[in-house]
Amino acid sequence: MADAREGESGCDTAGVVAAIRAVAATVAEHKAELSHLDREIGDGDHGENLAKGFNAVLAKLDQQQPETPGAVLKLVATTLISTVGGASGPLFGTAFLRAATSVGAATELDAAAVSGALAAALGGVVARGKAEVGDKTMVDALTPAGAAAAAAVGSGSVADVLSAAADAAAEGAASTVPLRARKGRASYLGERSIGHLDPGAASTSYLLRSLAESAAS
Amino acid sequence: MTVGLVIVSHSRSLARGVAELAAQMAPDIRLVPAGGTEDDQIGTSFDLVTAALEQADDGDGVVVLYDLGSALLTTETALEFADPEQAERIIVVDAPLVEGAVAASVAAQGGADLNAVGEAARMAGQSWTAARSGGRVAASQVPVIQESDIRAQAKVADSAGIHARPASILARELTVWPDTTIWIGRPGADLADARNVLALIGEGLRQGETVEIAGHGPDAEIAVAKVRRLINAGMD
């Protein structure tokens, strides 16, 4: 997946597929933990749901060979939406769909394209879920990630952009602990949602970390 | 022209039940339930909603009604993935599910266009509540009956009174005179717009009661006579 030109390292279709497979492995690894977080303030199925979705993505990737990075992202989007229950399916699916639309028909993604895709994904999640920073949702991880990615574009590679995004997402996810949930099922808990890490912010952070590690390898 | 209707619910039974109820009053429209997940659990399914939208759309558009939170998320996501040309003629309405479905389907059955069907659903909660609380309707809905309007009285023949089915039959009959308005109610009290099924049901007119019919517009005379005949003869 390395592109030797100008020392830049872009990401081609095979690289994106490898990154998605890495995400699936990460989700499987953290399945129990994510569901545990969700049991504290939700309905306890976030890990299982996401794992089911990414298993279905792996099965699709075994059968189909999408030709562009955008096509891979679109396959992920449609599969997650059809297989992940609750609000997570539409939210993660919309994020991947908007990312797919953002990268268009490009055969290789550079740092700017990856940052643009993250911004588009964030835009989609916000449009769909109508959450803002501070509502204790995945937006709390994705918003700083998008900003960090944009800031890293000028000086870095795809791996640098994703690494900056993952660091910011981890910090953003951690910031949800003291928050009171204002969106989704956790908001029904009111004060009792305080003191817990938001499962959607946590999974978003894991997802970006695994994309970053895949891009670096 | 017929607008279709999709009922999105977390429960398959609930979506089906609402569709069944509305179909009784609007037998000829495409009324498609999309309830539960594919494995029949509680939840909403992107694939079921997408399929329902396609099934309900005959080119004249679709009004979608939904029950709770993520049903809207799933519907909006389905619209984002849909063919943009098709998505343009789909509207999602925030309305009470049962009342909205009944009002929208009767409007669609009567040949109303997409926006009018959506508006019927949107107003459904309001007109139902108004009717139930003694006819305190919005100013725009209060009939101003003039001296020149055609008036008649009839005696309710239907054993269950003017309930859902007779009310929807009246509303449908009136669609052939789109420029004429007909009001029905107790003499001396607030009358309900006969095209507004929920308001008319809310009047609670019982068998044997004498009702007042008023008509305004170019075909008022023939429309009032028709309504009078239907009420006297019974529709059920």
Written overview of the protein:
The complex is a heterodimer of chains A (217) and B (236). In chain A, 67% of the residues lie in helices and 2% in strands. Chain A is an all-alpha fold. Chain A has a two-stranded antiparallel sheet with strand order 1-2. Chain A is globular and about 50 Å long. Chain A starts with 10 loop residues before the first strand and ends with a helix. The model of chain A is unreliable at 1-7 (pLDDT under 50). Chain B has 236 residues and is an alpha/beta fold. Helix content of chain B is 44%, strand content 17%. Chain B is built from nine helices and eight strands. In chain B, the strands form two sheets. A four-stranded parallel beta sheet of chain B has the order 2-1-3-4, sandwiched between helices. In chain B, strands 5-8-6-7 form a four-stranded antiparallel beta sheet. In chain B, a hairpin with a 6-residue loop joins strand 6 and strand 7 (192-193). In chain B, helix 1 (12-25) runs parallel beside helix 5 and helix 2 (46-56) crosses helix 3. The radius of gyration of chain B is 19 Å and the shape is elongated. Chain B starts with a strand and ends with a helix. Chain A binds chain B through residues 78, 81-82, 85-87, 89-91, 93-94, 97, 128-129, and chain B through 37, 41, 43, 45-47, 69-70, 73-74, 76-77, 80-81.
Strand order of the largest sheet of chain A: 1-2
Poorly predicted spans of chain B: 134-140
DSSP helical segment count of chain A: 9
String of helices and strands of chain A: EHHHHHEHHHH
SS summary, helix count of chain B: 9
Identify low-pLDDT runs of chain A: 1-7
| Assembly status | heterodimer
Tell me the total number of β-strands of chain B: 8
Radius of gyration of chain A: 16 Å
Mean pLDDT across all residues of chain B, rounded? 88
H/E order of the elements of chain B? EHEHEHHEHHEHEEHEH
**Biggest sheet: strand arrangement of chain B:** 2-1-3-4
Residue share in helices of chain A? 55-70%
Q: Which structural class should the secondary elements of chain A be placed in?
A: mainly alpha
Rg for CA atoms of chain B:
19 Å
